[in-house]
Task: structure prediction
Amino acid sequence: MSKRKVVVYADELEEILERGPTSKGYESLHTPTIAASSVKTLEEAVALTGIKYQDVPEHGWGLADCLDRNVECVHMCAWLETALEQFARSLFWHSYSAEALRRTPIDLILFDRLSSKQDLDGAKNLVLKGEQQITTLCLGDQQIVSGVADYVLGYCHSATSGQQQALESIHIVIEAKRRETMAQGIIQGALYLAGVQQDRKRANKIVSTVYGVVTDSVQYQFLRLDDEGSLFASKTYSTIFRDEKLEM
Result:
């Protein structure tokens, strides 16, 4: 009998539904678990989770063409643009040799963008957390897919914000990959988004659409899982240098 056909006990399933798919301690249950990294095709991810992949790469993105001289692009702060250019052109920083080295510029980019989006007077602040366990309940409720997302973005209440505070909910999942493993990042991103969406629906959030990014810090691909469970993936966008400014 296939390892993915083991039946979960009714009391364990009830506990899963009460805790939610991204809850701490989920992995302690005796539910058959599939590692997200072991799922090798998007078709398998779709079959496990029930999401519907829509192969329409231009759907809803509307990203400006940065090669168009009439388009005003948004720039990062000057010091970061200089640092990213140095990372990209360095002959001694072999960033393609390991995923960990790709994360350094990604960390800087996320810090810069989040810094510009903080609303200290708002009820909630958008925050970033790293290496977050995400668990997705598969179709049939008899097995789960589990893995660790590289980054997640969500909101914390600003009045009690702090680095130890748990996210109220997750909105965006980001996977950092080497260029050779970007395709695997799309698969893992899809699995994680399915789990995040399950969590939001279980919490009766008004909006259950969630987003993902897969990047090696130079190339970017964007994901959107809408309220109906349809997954859209953008084409791959690349960072370019123009007039000594870093743009995407």
Summary: The CA atoms of residues 155 and 204 lie 16 Å apart. Residues 1-10, 21-28 have pLDDT under 50 and may be disordered. The chain is about 25% helix and 25% strand. Helices lie at 10-19, 42-49, 78-89, 99-115, 182-202.
